[in-house]
Amino acid sequence: MQTSPPLLPEPARRVGAWCVVLLLAAGVAAVGIWLCVVFETVVTPVLLAILGTALLGPLYRRLLGMKVRKSFAAALTVVAVLAVVGGATYIVVAALIETGDQIIASLRQAATDIAEHLGPAGTSLDDLAQNAEGLLKQFGGTAASGVLTGLSVVGGMLATAALALVLIFFFLRDSDRAAGALRSLAPRATGDLVEAMARRAFEAVEGFMRGTTFVALVDAVLIGIGLVVLDVPGAVGLAALVFVTAYIPYLGAFLSGAIAVLVALADRGFAIALWVLAIVLAVQMIEGYLLQPMVQSRTVQMHPAAVMLAITAGASVAGILGMLLAVPLTAAATGILGELRTRYGAPRETPGGTGDAGGTGDAGGTGDAGGTA
To answer: Which of 164, 187, 190, 256 could be joined to 242 by an S-S link, Cβ 3.0–4.6 Å?
Structure first.
């Protein structure tokens, strides 16, 4: 019986198959994002708790190593979080409140100075600043009339934080049961794969959180010391701003550095502003070429373009919270893809031609299973 030739050549059928796979993956991702947005009240505390668990895991394990019971160790870890985060929040808020007016005044003076030097363009800039001031006053009046709305937002944030702390306690205490829970939910044949992907994802998030916190602390200390030495007003508040914005890679450092330079320009002059710019650039070079490779060398490394796209996508979906969560979630996804590539990717051919691609396979004992396991 003669068979008819296929309608499409083999390359076209391969492209069509990959298009179907990509469309299915995009549809699943879109539905997942939509569900996260719909159930934001539940998803947000869970994600924050996962980040907190990743950051506090070493402290919890150290307490367990000191023969402390699991529940008590998890409770001590949560109390330590409350003490550290509460103290840090108090320091940051107090510094920003104390120096906030001074920083804002310096920024306004910087806008005025720039307007004087730019001539006609500066006049437009000055008009823009005046219009912005009028809009801020109008916004202030609107905000004053919506105090109850503001209080409800604050109440929602506090409730989210409290729920995240409770979840951190349970995630830490029951972390040893996570693998068993995943295995029970996954089909029997894919239990090992699901567990391996989950471990890689969590390791990536854990490395990102610890590395970012350390780098943010170093950046804030170095830039803060430089601002204090140069006698820039609001140095403590600007250093606190550097620490907070460091959790938004690239964009946060740019924003905090620009504000510090503008404040120095307005209050201390052009020369000091150049010194502040040099300090910010030097710290960023130390971070990019020394701290990041050294601290996060064992975690998932992402290309800066991928980080920027993740931040943009996170901001479009969930605003500032999305910007903060975008990079660790992308790191987790990259870890999962790395695990899948390690297990199912095409093996690399060795220089002697003994890999699977060379035709010797597992039977000869030189393939992946026989040579690298």
So the answer is: 256
